[in-house]
Design a protein that fits this description.
mainly alpha; 7 helices
């Protein structure tokens, strides 16, 4: 159990924090999370060309033509993951180029840890990309099924309308007239067969 003396000592020690004190130091510290930007909400770093990212995003929109807010989100996530994966590849290439002995990427613990971190980020981004891709495809499939069902329903409604309109235009005794036509037709057919039979005798 922590004693009162220990609590007081911790409070005093916290006053001796060696964190940044100047405005410049605080500004640098506040930007630590964007050194690689792989976890940032904004996929574009200050040192990168936002126009190039926008072109990539527009290409994804052109390829997938999202029509719902959810589809727009999925396409944006895929473009962002693609952009960050390209950055990881550049970072990895730079790290390898800076090594005097490339074998250190595997033999030196600190160097290997850096490459391992990049690989974890790569795996996470690839999973994000493929998850969004699956969801987007599923969403498009549902959308096509909905369109097909809607088209079928419209065609059925149109057919029902035509049938009802035609039925309304028919006389009340239409079925009786139709039966009489069939009866006369059958009688003529029977008379024709009888005449043909008499002539063959």
């Amino acid at each position: 159990m922590t004693t009162f003396a220990q609590i007081q000592a911790n409070r005093e020690n916290s006053k001796l924090s060696t964190g940044p004190r100047t405005d410049a130091g605080k500004a640098v510290s506040s930007r630590n999370h964007v050194v690689h930007g792989l976890c940032g909400a904004d996929p574009v770093l200050p040192t990168e060309d936002r126009n190039q990212f926008n072109e990539l995003l527009e290409q994804y929109k052109c390829d997938w033509t999202p029509v719902t807010t959810h589809q727009e989100f999925l396409v944006s996530e895929m473009a962002a993951a693609h952009w960050k994966l390209d950055r990881i590849q550049r970072m990895e290439n730079d790290m390898l180029a800076a090594l005097v002995d490339p074998a250190k990427a595997f033999t030196d613990q600190e160097t290997a840890a850096g490459f391992t971190r990049l690989e974890r980020y790569r795996g996470s981004l690839e999973r994000t990309y493929h998850r969004c891709l699956r969801e987007l495809r599923a969403s498009r499939k549902d959308e096509k099924q909905f369109e097909a069902n809607s088209k079928q329903a419209i065609e059925q409604a149109r057919l029902n309308f035509l049938v009802q309109r035609n039925e309304a235009a028919l006389p009340p005794n239409f079925q009786e007239i139709l039966d009489e036509v069939h009866r006369r037709h059958d009688a003529r057919m029977a008379a024709g067969k009888a005449a043909a039979a008499n002539n063959s005798r």
